[in-house]
Amino acid sequence: MTTQPASGRGTTCSGAALVTASAVGDYFGCFAADTPAWRVTPGTGHVVEVQMSELRSGDRVLSMGASGRVFIDTVVRNLHVHDTRTYAMLVLHHAHGSLTITADHAVFVDGEFMAASSARIGGKMAARGEHAHGLPEEVTITAITHTTGRIINPITSSGTILAGPAGGAVRVGSVPYFAGNAAVRFVALPGPWKMVAALMPDAFQDSLLLEVAFTHPMTVGLASLGSAGLPFATVVALFFMYNAIVCALFLVGNAQLMGAVAALALGTAAAKAAMPRRAKAGHAAVRT
């Protein structure tokens, strides 16, 4: 999630700044921008392969649970949409494709989450396979190589997402890996940011404040407190407070839009409440 390069460090690649792990710590937690994801079309329910860079807050995408069940998840926010810099990444190759990801991103290998840098050749990843409603398949990591490119990070409500092409979409986290899988566990919990994103998805996606807040080193610091020995409940409480403060600042900055959303919600509720009365009045007129 955090991808702030240190000033004056790194190299260049094709004219773009190359941000390396040594330049920013080890906290990236992102996919290659052109990584395939599976978006569910509103209304029809059709599933379409898209690049992750096309996803926005409120989009519905496919994910996979611990049991291997594929389910529909929601993108809370897609980070780094406008980031044109180049980053160092790993490519996990398997028989049905590959996954290009930053070194600290959470991947699900051999039945547990770990940082991509901890994955090894021969490790097994859970894949959707060719049949959308079939049992998950295991794909084996056959090679691990290095590359560079633009990044993207669609954070989902469950903290997981299916990433990869048809036949080779694998279960991965939508956040970086921290000790005890803390980040995935945090994201899966209810929180103010999910409610605000559901109410105002476009504003939530486009907010510079939220982009800075979610990629700020403080977010990394909170997520890493669990490995420092603090109880998980304490870390969750701190994370929730930080989340609430950021969302409150966002709402203050979007007070006019929030008022319009509230007025629309109240108008819709009033219209629904009035419908039974109108129906009764119509029946009474017919009997008369």
Architecture overview:
Helix content is about 35%, strand content about 30%. The chain is built from eight helices and 16 strands. It is globular and about 60 Å long. It starts with 10 loop residues before the first strand and ends with a helix. The relative contact order is 0.14. Mean pLDDT is about 80; it is low at about 1-25.
List the helices and strands and how they pair.
Blueprint: E1 11-13, E2 16-19, H1 21-24, E3 31-32, E4 36-40, E5 47-51, E6 60-64, E7 70-79, E8 86-94, E9 97-101, E10 105-109, E11 112-115, E12 124-127, E13 137-149, E14 151-156, E15 160-163, E16 170-176, H2 182-188, H3 192-199, H4 201-206, H5 208-214, H6 217-223, H7 232-253, H8 255-287
Parallel strand pairs: 2-8
Antiparallel strand pairs: 1-2, 3-14, 4-5, 4-6, 6-7, 7-14, 8-9, 8-13, 10-11, 10-16, 12-13, 15-16
- Main beta sheet: strand number and arrangement? 6 strands, mixed
Percent helix, as a range, is 25-40%
Overall 3D form: globular
- DSSP E strands, number: 16
By oligomeric state, this entry counts as single chain
Portion in strands: 25-35%
